[in-house]
Amino acid sequence: MAVFVRISLFAAFLCGFFSCADSSRENLPREELFAVGIGKMEDEIDLFQFPEGADVYRTSLYMRDGLFYVGSGASFKVMEFTSYGDLLSMYYNPEENPAPVILRDASSGGERSNRRAYPYAFQSVGEIAVSSGKTLYVEDRLPREREVEDGGLGIKLNKIVLRFEDGEYQGYLGQDGMGGLPFPFIQSLYVLDGDVVCVLCRTPEDWAVFWFSPEGERLAALRISPDSLPALDGEGFFSNLETVIPDYTRRVLYLKVDYYREGKDAATGIKYGIEDSVSRIYRFDAAASGFEGFVDVPQNLRRERGGNFFEMQDVRYGYEFIGVDAEGNFFLKSREEGNVHQLLILAQNGHVLRRRDLGVEDSRLLFSVFRVSQEGILCALLASETGARLVWWRADALLEGL
């Protein structure tokens, strides 16, 4: 009897332990939209055309008005899909892709069709964005003979942003506007309210941000250097500017800055890693060229099992700033153990609006691309050895009525 009681109590402890762990986590359901096969056909993506794969050639994702745009650097093309996976259009380099079969090639003439393929000699497809009028913006690279050397930064300027309207090439954006000086490395590309285009670039020394009108006129530009970041109270902290994301309605930038302090043994003076860390999102008013406040990013601290079953330890996971919605809410994502990501949504005042778990099978993926739409929908392209899948999480529904 005594042994039975001990076993029963132990079993009850196990059940209590796991039920408590599960009850504290709410999951946001993932919806599978459609799959994109691996291959050279127009509705496929070529993940393995080059040995370097995702390390060199970028894959980008953009969602607008329920349509999905996938840019594939390895395939030298941009594809437009419905949420059911129907291919509507494709912009492609004909020297790197076979002649389209599903779509009508616009260069061949013939009767008008809503599903067409548009040839263009892409050099290196990068970030993409789409306006309300369906103007397509595609990051590309200039040929080597047209690169510009920036002696001050010691880098080559060779990135441009192509414009397509109804399949027709309409020139490219550079730093000065249409046909201007090439950009440095482009980190991200956005189309904001009023179809204003925002290009965010990185150099070895700073970030450079440009705003353009729908016609391609440069509206504003600024640079953000690490030296301009606000200092954190306390000694020994060093800062890292993780990312910069623009507001959709105002000329305001949101900067996520991570602060770290190295630990040091008091007796030996030997440094042993990160002792403390703090993350903030700063609001930077581009018109006034100054910071106008910040919110603290909460820590994601998990109580998890250690080396043995009964050993518990606190594990801290960092958040990645992945986007804002039209209301200016901040979307952050933290990758955790066990194929789980956590989504955190913060209001402008720092209040936690929602916190949910996301199922993402990282252990089986080659890479993944996440994007937050203006409506607050989180979508992702998940690429594995068998193909890519488009999925979304309706995070916008979590904010209804708030």
Describe what is shown at a glance:
6% of the residues lie in helices and 50% in strands. It is mostly beta strands and 402 residues long.
What is the element layout, followed by pairings?
Layout: H1 2-23, E1 31-38, E2 44-45, E3 59-64, E4 67-72, E5 77-81, E6 87-92, E7 104-105, E8 116-119, E9 128-130, E10 136-141, E11 148-150, E12 155-157, E13 159-165, E14 168-174, E15 177-178, E16 185-191, E17 197-202, E18 207-212, E19 218-224, E20 237-246, E21 252-264, E22 271-285, E23 290-296, E24 300-305, E25 312-317, E26 320-324, E27 330-335, E28 340-346, E29 352-359, E30 367-372, E31 378-384, E32 387-393, H2 395-398
Parallel strand pairs: 1-2, 6-8, 7-8
Antiparallel strand pairs: 1-32, 3-4, 4-5, 5-6, 9-10, 10-13, 11-12, 13-14, 14-15, 16-17, 17-18, 18-19, 20-21, 21-22, 22-23, 24-25, 26-27, 27-28, 28-29, 30-31, 31-32
